[in-house]
Write a structure and sequence with these properties.
This protein has about 200 residues and is mostly beta strands. The chain has one helix spanning about 1-25, and strands at about 40, 50-55, 60-65, 70-75, 75-80, 85-95, 100-105, 110-120, 125-130, 135-140, 150-155, 160-165, 170-175, 185-190, 195. Helices cover about 10% and strands about 45% of the residues. A 15-stranded antiparallel beta sheet has the order 1-2-3-4-5-6-7-8-9-10-11-12-13-14-15, with no helix packed on it.
Amino acid sequence: MKKYSITLINGFILGISTMLFIGAKSQPKSLGDIVVNSISVIDENDKLKAIIDTDDDDNGVLKMFNKIGSTVISGASIRTSNSAGKEMLFIGSEYAGYGGSVAIKNSKGNDIAYIGINTQFDNGMIATRNSEGTMETYIGSSAAYNGGVIQTLNSKGREVVHIGSDKPTEDGKVILFDENGGSGWTLKGRRWFYTITHPKKFNEN
């Protein structure tokens, strides 16, 4: 009787296994359409690692988290933040629709580097700033000169070096300024041409 019962149980288990196997094989490979409001991914310690959701503007959002910060892909942009929640990097389209840009921030949250659009001319530009957010270098276009320019500024935010083209000749031109922005030395691309001036300081009479 015992042997018969064991045989019956084994046969029952085998039958169930066969049906499950056949059923699994007959299932379609695609799950079809899945509709949810959001998806959250957690690790083995129940810590949140990723979210697929929508933002207030109804843009699709993917948020990913790790020990050093987070990354958010939303609409037409990618943003990264440090562990304190401060944004460190932006890659995407400008809010006003001017074009694409890359903005880098330091640990204080100040912009220190920018590659994107000069909205005044709709041309490309590169700008760098010091740790406090004061402009130090600009590469791009200028309203006062034809073509591209390279400008460096001192800690006061005043231009001290200008490399670009002269107007209207479009010859190459280099200008050095004093600490207060006064022109002190100019060199143009035309041969044997240069000027030297000695501007007064603002505190001189």
